[in-house]
Amino acid sequence: MFLETLVDFIIIHKDDLQDWLFVLLTQLLKKMGADLLGSVQAKVQKALDVTRDSFPFDQQFNILMRFIVDQTQTPNLKVKVAILKYIESLARQMDPTDFVNSSETRLAVSRIITWTTEPKSSDVRKAAQIVLISLFELNTPEFTMLLGALPKTFQDGATKLLHNHLKNSSNTSVGSPSNTIGRTPSRHTSSRTSPLTSPTNCSHGGLSPSMLDYDTENLNSEEIYSSLRGVTEAIEKFSFRSQEDLNEPIKRDGKKDCDIVSRDGGVATPATEGRGGSDVVEGGRTALDNKTSLLNTQPPRAFPGPRARDYNLYPYSDAINTYDKTALKEAVFDDDMEQLRDVPIDHSDLVADLLKELSNHNERVEERKGALLELLKITREDSLGVWEEHFKTILLLLLETLGDKDHSIRALALRVLREILRNQPARFKNYAELTIMKTLEAHKDSHKEVVRAAEEAASTLASSIHPEQCIKVLCPIIQTADYPINLAAIKMQTKVVERIARESLLQLLADIIPGLLQGYDNTESSVRKASVFCLVAIYSVIGEELKPHLAQLTGSKMKLLNLYIKRAQTTNSNSSSSSDVSTHS
C-alpha cells in the first residue's frame, strides 16, 4: 500500500520534492538490492520509473554520480545492477548538455569502469559496460574528454570496450541499420548530432563529426574503422596533451600543431590514418606511450645540467633506454659521473605492480599494507616519472581505499595521502575539492587511529592547497555538514586563514563569516570553540574590519570573542618580546 501511495505522492507533489530527491532515489535503489517478492519488486520498479520521469534528468544524474562515489555506501551486487540500469535508462532520455564532466563524474565513471571487471557477477559486468556505451553515445565529445583525464589504467579499459562496441556495431550494420542501444527521445527537442570538438581537434587530426551519427547505414567498413581509430586517438591525444608540463605543441619538420602520434610510430596524416596499425604494448599500455620517444622532439620539460642527459620520459622502451645509457657513458666525463650517481630511480614498473595490488579492495589485507608502506617510501623519493604517469591513479585508489573495511588500511592510506601532499602539492590543484571532502569524511571514522591520521592529512591539506581555493571548498562544508565534519572543516579553515593574504581574506569574508557564526551557535561545545578560534585568527589578519560582520552576535558572545582576541594579542606580544630578547643577547 505504501509504494502505491508513494507513486501518487511523487506525481502530485513532484515540484515540491526537489530537496528530497536524493533520499528518495537512493532509498529506492537500495530497496532493489533486498530479497523481495516479485510483486513488491515490480512496485519498487514502478516508483523508480515515475521518479525518473518526474524530476530533472541532470539533477538525477548528479545524485547518482555522488551516490556511486560515496565511501559510506557499500552497495551489494543487486544494488549495483539497479544503479547501473537506472543510469542506462536515464542516459537514453538525457540531453547531451545534461552530462557534465565534473571531478565527481570522473570518479564515478572510474568506479563504473572497475565494475566492468566485477568477478562475482556477470550482471554487474554487463550493466556497467552498457552504461559506459550509453554515456559515450549521449555526449561523445564530453565523454571522450572525460576519459582523457582519467588515469591510464581506467582509460585503457574503457577504450577497449568502446573499440569492441563500435566494431560489433559495424558488423551488424549490414543487416540492420539501427545498431546502437535504443534511445528514448528526450523531453527536449535538441539535436544530438553536433561536430565533435576536442581541445586538440583540427583539420585532419581530430574525430570526424560523423562519429556522433551512429546510424551506420551510409558508412562502409573502412569509414567505420577510421572513425573507430579516431575515437582511440582522440582519447590518447587528449590525455597526452593535457599533461601539466606540456607547454609546447609537438612538432616535427614543421608539421602542423594538430599532428598526432599515430599508432604505428609516426605522425598521423591523412595518408597514415588510412593504415591499420593497432600496436598494443604488453601490460595494457598503448603504443602512444613508448612510440612517442621515436620522434625527433625534445621532452616536454627541459632539465638543466648533467641530469637532463640521463632523464628519460619514456622508460618503457628497452631499446631506447639501452641507447640512452650507452650514449650517456660516452658523452660525460668522469667528474660528471659524481653528479649523476644520485639520479632518481624510475619506479614506474614497481608502482604499477603496487597499484594492481591496491585494487584488491577489502581483500589481501597484509599484501595491501605492504604495498601502501612501499608506496609511502616512494613518495619520499624524487621520482618525477612516477608522478607524471601514475598520480591520478594513485590518488583515486587512495581515496577509494578510505572506505576499506580494515581500519589499519584506512589509516595507512591517509598517511600515504599526507606524504604525497607534502611532496607533490601542485598536483592537487584539480583534485582539491575531492581530496578535502574525502579527508574530512574520514573524521567520522569509529577508530581513533584513522581519525588521527585524517586530522594530520587535513592539516597538511591546509598548508598545501592554495588558500583561496581551500576556503572556497571549506565554506559550504562548514555551513551544511554535521559534527564532526564541520568541526574538522573549521579547524582546517583556521590554519588556512593563518597563511592567506589580507586582501584575499577581505574578499572572501562574506563567504566565511556565516558558517562561523552558525558554528558559534552549535550544540557541540568543540564546534563553538573552534568557530571562536577561527574568528580570532581572522581578526589577527584584518583587525577591526572584522567587527561590522559580527553585528548579529549577542553581547555575551561578543564579549567572549573580545576576551579571546585580547588573550591572543597578549600571547603574540609576549612571544615577540622573548624573540627580541634572545636576538639582542
From TrEMBL:
Molecular function GO labels: kinetochore binding; microtubule binding
Subcellular location: Cytoplasm, Cytoskeleton
Main location: cytoplasm
Region (Disordered): 165-209
Swiss-Prot/TrEMBL keywords: Cytoplasm, Cytoskeleton, Repeat
Gene3D superfamilies for this protein: Leucine-rich Repeat Variant
Gene Ontology biological-process annotations: establishment of mitotic spindle localization; mitotic spindle assembly
GO annotation, cellular component aspect: basal cortex; cytoplasmic microtubule; kinetochore; microtubule organizing center; mitotic spindle; spindle microtubule
InterPro entries reported in the protein's UniProt record: ARM-like (IPR011989), ARM-type_fold (IPR016024), HEAT_GCN1 (IPR057546), TOG (IPR034085)
SUPFAM superfamilies recorded: ARM repeat
Composition bias, Polar residues: 167-182
Skewed-composition ranges (Low complexity): 191-200
Domain TOG: 336-574
Name this protein carries in UniProt: Cytoplasmic linker associated protein 1
